[in-house]
Write a structure and sequence with these properties.
CATH architecture: 3-Layer(aba) Sandwich
Helix content: 40-55%
Distance between the termini: 42 Å
Order of helices and strands: HHEHEHEEHEHHHEHHHE
CATH class: Alpha Beta
Structural class: alpha/beta
Radius of gyration: 18 Å
Number of strands: 7
Strand order of the largest sheet: 3-2-1-4-5-7-6
Length: about 250
């Protein structure tokens, strides 16, 4: 493990934490049962749960080492992390909020995964999938470029643990709608250049105020461009995609 538990729980501010705080604020003060599909080490959740004691958290994660770290980080909260792949989760049903974070681009069996996310959610509950297109649009090296290409062209050759692909937002939205979600919405965030700036600010002792301004700028620019820019252009500018909807039945 490259970082200690204390380092991983240190207060921080970034795009994902700001997104989660905004999402959970929509539920007000009422109790929330939350399912996180493909939670990894759940490294961002102690920061969130510390200020939201009415959230009961359940994570699903296939990797045993990541699960061990997650359970250690979450041991003082009403939370647990169980073994399994998202598309075959045994976490139960009736969740108020089911989500995945930076996961869909690594899901080999996308339709079963999306179906499981809807099935786990109570009628009237919310399903949110926030995922990244940066692996395909901005690969960091030839290995990542090759992995994305293989996952798209010969997916049967790539193991589920390494799968990385480009997931069209329109496909996710259509599938969720067909599974019984209404008010399905696609939005974009994390402008690529601003994300790089935020990464640097997070390492600065006095970067908190500037980070807040970056978050506000990202949201404002995204809203302004959404009305005049195509989905393809939005994806290149804002490679973090959020697809969400409400379960009708």
């Amino acid at each position: 493990m490259s970082r200690t538990t204390s380092e991983m729980t240190a207060p921080t501010l970034d795009f994902k934490i700001a997104f989660l705080n905004g999402l959970l604020s929509e539920f007000g003060d009422r109790p929330i049962r939350l399912l996180d599909m493909g939670c990894g080490t759940a490294k961002d959740w102690p920061i969130i749960l510390r200020s939201r004691p009415r959230v009961t958290y359940v994570g699903v994660e296939p990797d045993s080492k990541s699960r061990a770290v997650a359970n250690d980080l979450l041991r003082s909260f009403p939370a647990k992390v169980i073994a399994g792949w998202g598309e075959a989760t045994n976490a139960g049903e009736g969740f108020d909020l089911t989500l995945s974070l930076s996961v869909l681009e690594h899901v080999k069996y996308l339709d079963p995964f999306l179906r499981a996310s809807v099935a786990a959610t109570r009628p009237g509950g919310t399903v949110v999938h926030r995922y990244d297109l940066g692996h395909s649009l901005y690969p960091v090296n030839i290995s990542e470029r090759t992995l994305v290409a293989a996952s798209r062209r010969i997916p049967w050759m790539v193991p589920a643990s390494r799968f990385t692909t480009h997931v069209e937002p329109s496909r996710v939205a259509r599938t969720l709608n067909s599974l019984g979600l209404s008010k399905v919405d696609v939005s974009y965030a994390q402008m690529y250049s601003l994300k790089q700036a935020m990464n640097r600010l997070s390492r600065m002792e006095n970067g908190h105020e500037l980070a807040n301004r970056v978050l506000t700028l990202d949201a404002d620019v995204g809203k302004a461009l959404r009305a005049v820019v195509s989905d393809r252009e939005m994806a290149f500018l804002f490679p973090s995609v959020i697809v969400r909807g409400v379960k009708d039945r």
